[in-house]
Amino acid sequence: MRIGLYPGTFDPLTLGHLDIIRRACTMVDRLVIGVAINADKGPLFTLQERVAMVESNCEAIARETGVEIITHPFENLLIQCAEDVNATVIIRGLRAVSDFEYEFQMVGMNRAMNDEIETLFLMADAEYQSIASKLVKEIKRLNGDISSFVPPEVAIALEQKLGK
After folding, report:
1. pLDDT at position 101
2. Which is catalytic among the residues 50, 92, 133, 137?
3. With CB atoms 3.0 to 4.6 Å apart as the test, which of 29, 60, 148, 163 could cross-link to 159 if both were Cys?
4. Count helices and strands in the chain by DSSP H and E runs
5. Is 63 one of the annotated active-site residues of the chain?
6. What is the mean pLDDT of the chain?
7. Is 72 a catalytic residue?
8. How confident is residue 164, by pLDDT bands cut at 50, 70 and 90?
9. Dihedral over alpha carbons 25, 128, 120, 63 (to 10 degrees)
């Protein structure tokens, strides 16, 4: 069984994340969405809210693709999380060249710890390359329209948290 791990904070889940998830499903039999527990990042949404967003928005993708999609909260090293879920590949989404520099360093460190787990980079679809969770939250804080960046239920959740 090919198991992939797609890690992130998902604070909040965006259409860009869902694009990567959908495309990753063409390459694996099981996709584990690793929801990072990272208090240092000061997430807007609780872990339970972020997991619920991922689960509810991935149900249809799992049905469409026939790929098992599960969520797995984690707060250890990414490579340890990959080992915990028996992943053979870590999937990372890239939006821009600046993302690649950081990710390139991470791959080197991860391979030094376990060279049997590969990292696969997927470029975000051009439609989603500008979307970043941080920017989505800022747009909503300033009462902007985020409907083209996040699923409807996430837009509602952001409205409840940040709406004016």
Report:
1. 81
2. 133
3. 163
4. 6, 5
5. no
6. 93
7. no
8. low
9. -10
Structure tokens at 25: 């499903």
**pLDDT tens for residues 12-55?**
999 999 999 999 999 999 999 999 998 777 899 999 999 999 99
Would you say 114 and 83 are in contact if contact means Cβ atoms under 8 Å apart? yes
3-state secondary structure (DSSP) of residue 41 = helix
Q: Which residue has the tokens 């409807």?
A: 152
Among the listed residues 15, 26, 13, the one whose alpha carbon sits nearest the alpha carbon of residue 91? 26
Can you read off the two tokens belonging to residue 129?
């390359």
| pTM flag (> 0.90) | yes
Q: Are the C-beta atoms of residues 18 and 57 closer than 8 Å to each other?
A: yes
Residue 30 bridge partners (DSSP) = 3, 68
| Active-site residue, 56 included | no
Residue 66 φ/ψ region, left for φ over 0, alpha for ψ in the -120 to 50 degree band, beta for the rest: left
Active-site residue identified among 41, 130, 134, 147: 41
Q: Per the residue annotation, which of 17, 50, 137, 140 is the catalytic one?
A: 17
Q: Where are the domains of the chain?
A: 3-128
Fold (CATH) for 3-128: Rossmann fold (3.40.50)
